[in-house]
Design brief:
81 residues, mainly beta, single chain
């Protein structure tokens, strides 16, 4: 399990509450400015998701592959489209 400090989305969208297992058209942003494209692995009973980190992009910085393929629990209001 990854241990990233994920930021809340500036304006969370309602559709983030309705993602299904396998969906991957969204990303999260951590406090170091890294953006991670994700795929829903599991919907948790508390309204959160377990996601797989698929790829990372950092503008102007070198990518770290340490988190790719790892899982992270996130809430719907951390999801960005």
């Amino acid at each position: 399990m990854a241990d990233l400090d994920i930021m809340m989305a500036d304006e969370p969208l309602e559709k983030a509450k309705h993602l299904q297992v396998g969906e991957e058209q969204f990303f999260v942003l951590d406090r170091q400015g890294r953006s991670f494209n994700c795929r829903v692995k599991e919907r948790l009973p508390n309204g959160e998701y377990t996601v797989e980190l698929l790829s990372e992009s950092i503008e102007g910085r070198e990518k770290s592959l340490d988190y790719i393929g790892k899982e992270q629990n996130i809430s719907w209001d951390q999801i960005r489209f």
